[in-house]
Amino acid sequence: MNDTIVAIATPPGQGAIGIVRLSGPGSRGIGLGLFHPSRKGFSDFGPYRLHHGQLRDSAGNFIDDILAAWMPGPRSFTGEDVLEFQCHGGGAILRRVVEECLLRGARLAAPGEFSKRAFLNGRMDLTQAEAIMELVGAPTGVAVGLAGSKLEGLLAQRIAELRASLENLRVQLCVAVDFPEDEVECLAPQDLQRGVSAVREAMAELAGNYDRGRCWREGALVVLAGQVNAGKSSLMNAILGVSRAIVTDIPGTTRDYLEESVQLDGLPVRLVDTAGLRASQDSVEMLGIERSRELMSRADLVLLVIDAELGPGAEDLDLAGQLDNLLVVANKMDLVAGQPGWFAEGPWKDKDIRPLSAKHGQGLPGLLGAVRSRVAGAGAPEPGTLVPNLRQHDALTRAMQELALLLDDLACGQPYDILAVRLDAACALLGEITGEITSEDVLNAVFDGFCIGK
Ligand SMILES: Nc1nc2c(ncn2[C@@H]2O[C@H](COP(=O)(O)OP(=O)(O)OP(=O)(O)O)[C@@H](O)[C@H]2O)c(=O)[nH]1
Ligand SMILES: [Mg+2]
Question: Does residue 304 form part of some domain?
Fold first, then answer.
């Protein structure tokens, strides 16, 4: 990390301002070489201030009129010397500034390299670094709040508390192992059992926020599926409020899937219309049906659209037997009088069936309410809820597994030194979440997902 990195920190396209960011020991020197101050008597960048001037190349050619912000380490984002040029926001200008920095010895930053340096220099833990990504990508205000709590370090704090509880138990175990003869206070098996169970429950609660929070963060995947001509595309259009998907009375109209984003009362949803299911010999249609099935397997919720007048077919029965995350939609209710007989038949009578007319809109608000409550349960997570991401959830789950094994071992009367190994493993997994204990692979996996300039 002895070199100086440079990147455009603002998104591509035109904007009022665009920022080029430098970090590393050469930042100041590179900046002074390019910068021509407008203030007389300027001799150097004063720290934590904005300096007005022009950037010029070595031949003295004008590049841009800018503000330079000088943030010497360690009190900077990366913990290193950081210089930012606030230029006019045009791609060619910004690329030109970066090129001039490269000519003066900087190196182009890798994706996420600024944040990685911030982490390695102890300016933030791994959960905070990940929170930057989540904050930038947040689709809704709720998602901004969830990312914000993590950026503030509240998740790291919670993990540290859990880890401290385990380490405390670990110390008491060691005392029992190391000084068995002494009269020092020794942890009784039932106290160990109680202590470990309490931490495990707290971890389970945290891990449980993952699924609920994920939908608010990334959007829930809701897939419209069912037999040909059931009215899936009509429902897609009705939900979107625009005629997005082609609707005809020809079975097999939709051949490839269509995805659109909508918000249901603040809940971000990725809504997908799929090719209708039927036995087909058409190779294109078969590929489409394969995609429909793949999407259903990943969906948070499948809306199984059934033509209420025709009733369910073999494909519908299959799906109803296979999928739990299913909401049955009885469409074309405008064509039937009263409740169709099949509602009360075997596989359907216990299902939540939503009557609808996609064509005329009756039943739509009720259906959307049901979708929202099926996907988001009790509603948006309260502000301050700590929602782990996939990586964090995975480490938590593995730590919980270690504790479950520990409790089994304890019940079998295994000696304390064996139990201590399990406690260590669980602590290490918690340390992986915040990055206190971590491998280069984990770090690369986290920071490679960032874009350049972050
Ligand atoms: N009467 C009535 N007709 C409907 C309703 N919904 C859809 N239809 C009609 O049913 C036919 C098929 O509708 P689509 O929305 O294309 O059906 P789909 O499920 O997308 O069909 P595929 O793409 O072929 O799988 C069209 O003629 C629609 O106008 C409804 O609620 N009532
Ligand atoms: Mg269709």
Answer: yes
Report how many domains make up the chain: 3
Nearest CA owner, ligand 1 atom 11: 249
One domain for residues 353 and 237 = yes
Per-residue confidence in pLDDT tens, the chain, 454 aa: 789 999 999 999 999 999 999 999 999 999 999 999 999 999 999 999 999 999 999 999 999 999 999 999 999 999 999 999 999 999 999 999 999 999 999 999 999 999 999 999 999 999 999 999 899 888 888 889 999 999 999 999 999 999 999 999 988 886 666 666 655 566 788 999 999 999 999 999 999 999 778 888 888 999 999 999 999 999 999 999 999 999 999 999 999 999 999 988 888 999 999 999 998 889 999 999 999 999 999 999 999 999 999 999 999 999 999 998 999 999 999 999 999 999 999 889 989 999 999 999 999 999 999 999 898 877 788 888 899 999 999 999 999 999 999 999 999 989 888 899 999 999 999 999 999 887 788 788 888 878 877 8
Q: Smallest Cα–Cα separation from 278: which of 225, 333, 330?
A: 225
Which atom of ligand 1 has the smallest separation from the CA of 228? 25
Distance of CA 17 to the CA centre of its chain: 28
Q: Is 359 in the pocket of ligand 1 (CB under 6 A)?
A: yes
Q: Do residues 211 and 301 lie in contact, with contact meaning Cβ atoms separated by under 8 Å?
A: no
Using CA positions, which residue lies closest to atom 32 of ligand 1?
332
List the CATH number of the domain containing 41: 3.30.1360.120
- The answer to the question of residue 447 being in a domain is no
CB 205 within 8 A of CB 162: no
Would you say 78 and 4 are in contact if contact means Cβ atoms under 8 Å apart?
no
Of the candidates 215, 295, 226, 298, the one whose C-alpha atom is nearest the C-alpha of residue 263 is 215
CA of 249 to the centre of ligand 1 (A): 6
